[in-house]
Amino acid sequence: MQPSISQIRFLGKPRIIGLMTFALFLLCTSWQSRAQDTPLLSGGGGFFTNTTGGNTNYQFVIEPLLAAPVGKHFLIESRAYLDESYSPKGDGQSGYSGTGFIALTYLQGSYFLSPHVTVTGGSFLLPFNTYNDRLSPIWISNFQDGPLISSLGTLSTGTGLGGMLAGSAVSKPKYSIDYKAWFSARSGNEQFDTQRSAGARASLYLPEKRLEVGLSYDKQLQGVREHFYGAHAWWEPANTAFRLRSEFARGFHAQGYWIEADYRTQAFGGLNSWIGRFEPLFRIQQSFRRDTIASDGLPLVNTQRADFGLDYNLLHSTRIITSYSRQFASTGDENIWETGIVYRFLFPAWKAR
Predict the structure, then answer these.
(1) Is it the case that residue 190 has pLDDT exceeding 80?
(2) Which terminus of the chain is less hemmed in, N or C, by CB atoms within 10 Å?
(3) Which SUPFAM superfamilies match (predicted)?
(4) How far lies 69's CA from each of 39, 45, 273, in Å?
(5) Distance set, CA 234 to CA 111, 261, 335 (Å)
(6) Whose CA is closest to 116, among 204, 176, 184?
(7) How far apart are CA 295 and CA 288, in angstroms?
(8) With 90 as the cut, is the pLDDT of residue 30 above it?
């Protein structure tokens, strides 16, 4: 599981200092909001394995999230990523070597100005297409690995540092139009490493069809000043547990798409029966090179990949996720086997009065 976020690597004492700093932030924020609504501590933890080319890697992940309301109109939100990974030693050595890092995914404050406008400032997830800001948390994503094109339009770090406007532009019984528009400043800080950019996403939702379609645009305002274009479509038919999600993204150096489907049957006692908890998955994706000057985080050659998964939804917000992937490229084809178990937690910071 690789996050598309800015990462800080801590070894030894610096890692402990990083953990203490994040814990202090949670404590201070919660104390200041004691007189307001109760803050929520949420997130997920997981253990994952990845076997590629006969080599197996192991990964322990904790991804905590804090949502702290301050009054009726202001919300402070932050998410972190703590990771310990173990991979086989190279150069013919036996055994495994371990690495670890702590990453602050984002840290933002949002002011709810009206039903049509929410103002957000700080470090936020770039809402280019849908994967980065909706599906990337480990307790939401169906597959361990993100799509091949997930870095297009998110400027490699996946985050911006600046301001964002979001809300519902139009809300009618038969349709609604939502928007997000942002500006990100350039920052060389090792924690908030961002590029100067501006962009927007607009989505049309049809509630009777349970269909959402949208367009995204992002322009890099430094260096080569690259333009990125994106489109997405989500469909969840009514009275079914079937979901279809897809994205297309195009940059100056590469482009590609992914289509993902998952389904849970209700025919044998509902979704909570032992059969209804099985969730078969399928994802097809391709990336295409327009040139080889820069990778944009994508493979340097045209790549096709088919992912077959089978998740099992246990009680108490726990999921077992498994998948087999076959990847095709001119540099060589490979098989990828992945397994994992994820637990979602959610509880108040303290007992509400």
Answers:
(1) no
(2) C
(3) Porins (SSF56935)
(4) 6, 24, 37
(5) 28, 10, 28
(6) 176
(7) 11
(8) no
The DSSP 8-state label assigned to residue 320 in this structure reads E
Q: Which CATH architecture is the domain 13-348 placed in?
A: Beta Barrel (2.40)
pLDDT in tens, 88-115: 887 777 778 888 988 889 999 999 999 8
**Mean pLDDT, residues 156-171:** 92
Beta strands in 33-73 (DSSP E): 40-52, 55-70
Quote the pLDDT of residue 36: 53
Handedness of CA 8, 12, 14, 18 (dihedral sign): positive
Residue found under tokens 């949002």? 110
CA distance 136 to 192: 19
- Integer Cα distance of 197 and 226 in angstroms: 9
Residues 323-337: what's their mean pLDDT?
95
pLDDT tens profile 34-77: 445 788 999 999 999 999 888 899 999 999 999 999 988 999 99
Q: Which residue has the tokens 């297409």?
A: 129
Backbone φ, ψ for residue 17 (5° rounding) = -60, -40
Write down the pLDDT at residue 8. 37
Average pLDDT taken over every residue of the chain: 87
Which residues, other chains included, contact 327 with Cβ-Cβ below 8 Å and sequence gap of 6+?
303, 304, 305, 333, 334, 335, 336
Give the CA angle between residues 170, 175, 181 to the nearest 5°: 45
Local confidence band at 265 (pLDDT 50, 70, 90 cut-offs): very high
Burial class (CB in 10 A: 0-12, 13-18, 19+), 93: exposed
- Angle at alpha carbon of residue 341, lines to 126 and 265, rounded to 5°: 90
Beta strands in 221-333 (DSSP E): 227-235, 242-250, 254-263, 278-289, 303-314, 318-329
Given a contact cutoff of 8 angstroms between Cβ atoms, the answer to whether 247 and 129 are in contact is yes
| Residue 222: CB atoms within 10 Å | 11
